[in-house]
Hints:
The radius of gyration is 23 Å and the shape is elongated. The chain has two domains: 3-222, P-loop containing nucleotide triphosphate hydrolases (Rossmann fold, 3-Layer(aba) Sandwich), CATH 3.40.50.300; 227-297, Alpha-Beta Plaits. The two termini are 40 Å apart. It is of the alpha/beta class. Helix content is 37%, strand content 27%. A six-stranded mixed beta sheet has the order 6-7-8-3-9-10, with helices on both faces. A four-stranded antiparallel beta sheet has the order 2-1-4-5, covered by helices on one side. A four-stranded antiparallel beta sheet has the order 12-13-11-14, with helices on one face. Helix 9 runs antiparallel to helix 10 (272-285). The chain binds adenosine-5'-diphosphate and magnesium ion. InterPro entries: AAA+_ATPase, ABC_transporter-like_ATP-bd, ABC_transporter-like_CS, ABC_transporter_ATP-binding, DrrA, DrrA1/2-like_C, P-loop_NTPase.
Amino acid sequence: MAAAIHAEGLVKTFGGVRALDGVDLDVPEGTVLGLLGPNGAGKTTTVRVLTTLLRPDSGRAMVAGIDVLAHPNEVRRSIGLSGQFAAVDEYLTGRENLRMVGRLYQMPSRAAKARADELLERFNLADAADRPAKTYSGGMRRRLDLAAALVVRPPVMFMDEPTTGLDPRNRQQLWEVIKELVAGGTTLLLTTQYLEEADHLAHDIAVVDHGRVIARGTSDQLKARTGGERVEVVVHDAELLPTAAEVMNGFAKAAATVETHTRRITAPVTGGAKLLAEVIRELDTRGIEIDDIGLRRPTLDDVFLSLTGHAADEAARPEEAAK
Ligand SMILES: Nc1ncnc2c1ncn2[C@@H]1O[C@H](COP(=O)(O)OP(=O)(O)O)[C@@H](O)[C@H]1O
Ligand SMILES: [Mg+2]
């Protein structure tokens, strides 16, 4: 299958900061690549290079078969971009914003109107359609920005953290819109800090950290790599933490992590509920009282911890990025 997006050795430095340190990517036509990484990993910089907004120091990139550095204008005609920070005209209404995009792309006026109405409906903006965008809440702006990126149905789409700052209902709706878009043949590169989002939408995930792709694969492959599942135990008595950790390490695929102040031990395991029962029995045999115990799938933090040796929350938390 032809690659709709191809990047090779992208390097970009800002002063002393190496934002991109040799990024390689391939996104086959008609698929979704999720670029997953914490704040500062280089996601936005990658998107800006691929969408012709920023020239890399070195490396090359092709989008829709066109050389990004040699023919940026042609690339721009083949792509849609929804940025991390909403780029809507504050003084126009939601409806006017969408119609304007259609007209910019030379859609016939009737078609631009119809598409605007359809998108306003899809993104729950119909009631606010005739209010200036400056009266919109943050979530509404975000939705309008995404709608604007979808006015023309480009063969290749880029979405930079499309659902950061959206409430769960709107996030769900956007996921549905994205799925339809991809079912229609669009290739999508999507950046996110949420493993769950990559899970729902991406065929392939590339994990980025410090300007490099440090792992790639399907969501299941990445989770398997991080050790399948997690058992979490909250021990009642802090003094028994070391003993409990020893028990947990007996079941774990990799070293358990101990959080002293919450008396919580987390261990990567494979084996599901049956193993959970064994852990409970063993802790009981050793006389360790527990306040809470549970089995969960790996989170983005787990993927990061296992891939990079540092937790994702050493960077800013997602909630802070949404502000
Ligand atoms: N225009 C810029 N000037 C200086 N530093 C920048 C600029 N853009 C990005 N950076 C730095 O490059 C790194 C990667 O940033 P970015 O691509 O925005 O990460 P992400 O989108 O994954 O959060 C960060 O350390 C960031 O501070
Ligand atoms: Mg970013």
